[in-house]
What we know:
Helices cover about 30% and strands about 35% of the residues. It has helices spanning about 1-20, 35-40, 45-60, 115-120, 150-155, 160, 165-170, 190-195, 250-255, and strands spanning about 60-65, 70, 80-85, 100-110, 125-135, 140-150, 175-190, 205-215, 220-225, 230-235, 240-245, 245-250. A hairpin with a 3-residue loop joins strand 1 (about 60-65) and strand 2 (about 70). The chain contains nine helices and twelve strands. The longest helix is centred in the N-terminal third of the chain and has 21 residues, at about 1-20. By secondary structure, the chain is α+β, with helices and mostly antiparallel strands.
Amino acid sequence: MADAIETSKTRRVYLTLRDRIMSGELAPGARLPSEPDLADLHDVSRVTIRRALAELEREGLISRRPGAGTFITARMIKRPIVADLSNALAHLVEMGRSTDVRLLQFGYVSPAVEVAEALRLEDNEKAQRSVRVRIIDGEPFSYLITHVPERVGTTYTEQELAAVPLLTLIERSGVKVDRATQTISATLAGPGVAEALGIDIGSPLIALTRVVYDVKRRGIEHLVAFYRPDRYSFQMDLVRIDSGGDRLWSPVERFRGGSNFNTTVKAE
Length: 268
């Protein structure tokens, strides 16, 4: 119990200092208070402060100089990807960002009930299941779990999935992709996802579930994706419109007639 409490305190101090650094409150070159002063300020032990500072140093946010003190380092700010909500990866090439995929799992399974229902599979119909980590500029930013009906999954190989976007492989098989529905929420990283994305267990993640359908309204892909929020975010352009006497926010593309999907935007 004591170790758990100490770990919680360390993380609290680490996150507090990290937020102050990332927000610019603590500017590059600024000197942090001494370890005893930080311990008094945060009401923790010096051991806790040392552990928090060690994590900040590991991330390159501070530099500890013997005899001089601890200083905030100048750093290159890596801007997160800001993806259009309707097509998360469409503009990565245009952005000049190099991407890669690490394939962790590949096989055929009897999917969970909710996946089978979403894909509208026949009884006992299997699905090709894969787990991938997408990497950008050499760093992992998303963890992807996909299920594809077996009749489609057998048209590509494990090696191809590790090198070619899944939707490209699906369309290559002759499937006519028609529409998709997706839900975005938030979650916490479990052990496997945390290890793959290089983050702590329990770290916050953006969670996305998407089901893709063909022209016959058959499900052809079920995707569950987890994104690091410090490296990835979603964007939606909105316009203010009149609707039955009410003033509402509406996605720009739907307003222009470019989308047929219903979208609800809650008031802030």
